[in-house]
Amino acid sequence: MSTAARFRSIEDTVRGTHGKPGPTYWVLLAVSAATFGFGAWAYSLIVRTGLHWTGLRRPGMWGNLITDFVFWVGIAHSGTLISAILFLFRARFRTAVYRVSEMMTVFAVLTAGLYPVLHLGRPWFAYWLFPYPNQRHLWVNFRSPLVWDVFAVSTYLTVSAIFLVVGMAPDFGSLRDRASGWRRRLYAIFSFVWRGTDEQWRHYTRAYLFFAAFATPLVVSVHSVVSWDFAVSILPGWHSTLFPPYFVAGAILSGVAMVITILVPLRRAFRLEALVTQRHVDMLVRLVQLTSAIITYSYATEILLVLPRPASDPERATFLYRMTGDYAPLFWLMVTCNCVGPVLLYFRRVRHSVAALLTICVAVNVGMWLERFNIIVTSLAHDRLPFDWRVYVPSWVEWAITVGAFGWFFMLFLIGLKIFPSVSISEMKEEVAREAAGEVSHAG
Amino acid sequence: MRAERGILAVFEEPGAAAEAIRMLRDRGIRDLHVGMPSPFPEVVAALSKPRSAIDYATLPGALLGLLIGILLPVLTSLSWPLVTGGKEIVSLPAFAVIFFEMTVLVGSLTNLVAVTVRSFLGGGGGAFPRDEAFNGDRLAVFAAGGGDEAEHVFRAAGAGEVRRVG
Predict the structure, then answer these.
(1) B interface mutation test: which of A128, A203, A208, A442 has the most B CBs within 10 A?
(2) CA separation for the pair A376, A297 (Å, rounded)
(3) Diameter of chain A measured on Cα atoms
């Protein structure tokens, strides 16, 4: 097949994902929208009558909602890792999978960004989190990690969204040229009059490099900042210097597991096997294995460092409570999902089985949600004051909001799939041309 | 605006286009422009154009962000000096996060403005014929002001289509 024919094939495959949706798509979209609607209605109860609908009582004033926030920020991580960091490292396997990861990142940050607002007693004052001139000269407290969060998450959302939209401009240019109706008008807007001239490419590739360079430290910083929400406090179980790398590795683990969870059914449903090959999935699996190993090491470090301490040590008491107390089943389920499950992926038969791979990746995400729950809830439930100890149990309203967030995320993702190119057309063409040049030089 | 006159050659293979560019440059024809669906390294190398000057916008933008990031927490903390958590009023380690985030945010936004002006919105079209777009399966080389010699080189390099423009 000639290079031009392979270029056409790439375009046709990606355009195929924008075809008329089938009944499965509509059912999934309806379920996602209904789930989101249910979550939104449950949240409206809190807005109308207060936080008493939650299970939040002293000392556990952070529960499901903050767990969800940390979970979704974590999910957002892999997109930028795959698109920016692997771009800087020239890891070619990213080409086929980074667009889906970037979309996931933006939608996950949009989901995470809701939670600081949802968690407020008076969400209509959410703008107080931002510094703005006011007649009383009151400013936000920049020494508070909660304000760092506002800056970190809003910067991450802005940069990720820019990175996604700018990265798609050449693809929108090629889709625009063969589209009609509303799609043509929409793609014309997002292609920014892209014509593919060498002058455009010259500036674009340089700018893209800078976006990647800006986004790379953001990957590390955002979840480090989220971890400092906990680590800068003096609560046993939270006050740890291990938290930033531990959180970043966990975020990448959950994010990549989510990419696989989405990508594997997607490549089958949209017949993307020619573009997203088994090798690409295998490389993502390696990332899961690596980050799972880091997480396992972090769990072991945390536990082994506190166990030799005296019995009166509050840190030791908190960790023993995590492992043997009221929440112990959740702790051990977390360890099984995050540490034992990914080990099975070392077996080729397991990682090449779609059912097994998806089960392990979904389990990793369950495990990573439980990890955040364990960190947040067990530490608060068992603090330094024994008279205050209390077991937190999420209310049905909190569960509805948790599930509703998944509905919101998947609803956005399903809509995005039908509008955005789910694989980078221009970069795939570059790969094809590179392969063709390699074949010619081999033949020569 | 008057269309640039010259020869436009359409290629199916990036390698052939790169070869044509090299041959033209060897013959002293250097006002060359390309339309291509991807920044093929061999074509970019053959063109030998200087690196984009976007750096000169992005770096000052990032430095401006750093300055804003420093001034915002420092000045607002001095404006309302409230001690919290036993920290200094101007607590630089705590403000480092804001310094970093503002550097990245303003740097990225400046980079966006720079790429929009220089590359998007038709700003980066150069002399390539304005009514031509090669985002699909082929690429085109345009020799501005090129005559019979350019046409001959294009055909020798294996261009699928060669035509006069303007």
Answers:
(1) A203
(2) 20
(3) 80
B62, B122, B137 ranked by CB distance to A7: nearest: B137
Q: Who's near A214: CB < 8 A, 6+ residues apart?
A: A159, B62, B104, B107, B108, B111
Q: Confidence band (pLDDT; 50, 70, 90) for A442?
A: low
Query: Whole-model pTM?
Result: 0.92
Average pLDDT of chain A to the nearest whole number = 90
Superfamily of domain A3-443: Formate dehydrogenase/DMSO reductase domain (1.20.1630.10)
Q: What is the pLDDT of residue B2?
A: 47
Q: Which two tokens stand for residue B134?
A: 């090669």
> What count of other Cβ atoms lies within 10 Å of the Cβ of residue B12?
18
Say what the pLDDT of residue B60 is. 94
Can you give the pLDDT at residue B126?
Answer: 65
The tokens describing B43, both together, are 């074509």
Note the Cα A264 to chain centre separation in Å. Answer: 16
Q: Is A218 at the interface with chain B, CB within 8 A? A: yes
Q: Alpha-carbon Rg of chain A, whole angstroms?
A: 23
DSSP B8: E
What ipTM was assigned to the predicted interfaces of this complex?
A: 0.91
- Cβ contact A206–B54 (<8 Å): yes
Distance CA B163, CA A126 (A): 61
How many percent of chain A have pLDDT more than 70?
99
CB neighbour list of residue A316: distance below 8 Å, 6 or more residues apart: A306, A307, A309, A310
Confidence class for position B5, pLDDT limits 50, 70, 90: confident
Residues whose CB falls within 8 Å of the CB of residue A392, separated by 6 or more in sequence, listed in order: A55, A56, A57, A60, A63, A377, A380, A381
Asked whether the beta carbons of residue A142 and residue B73 sit closer than 8 angstroms, the reply is: yes
Q: Which of B80, B97, B103, B110 best tests the A interface by mutation, with the highest count of A CBs <10 A?
A: B97
Q: How many CB atoms lie within 10 A of CB A13?
A: 20
- Crossing angle of helices B55-79 and A198-231, rounded to 10°: 30
Q: Which tens digits make up the pLDDT trace of B88-112? A: 899 999 999 999 999 999 999 999 9
Domain ranges of chain B: 6-52+125-165, 55-118
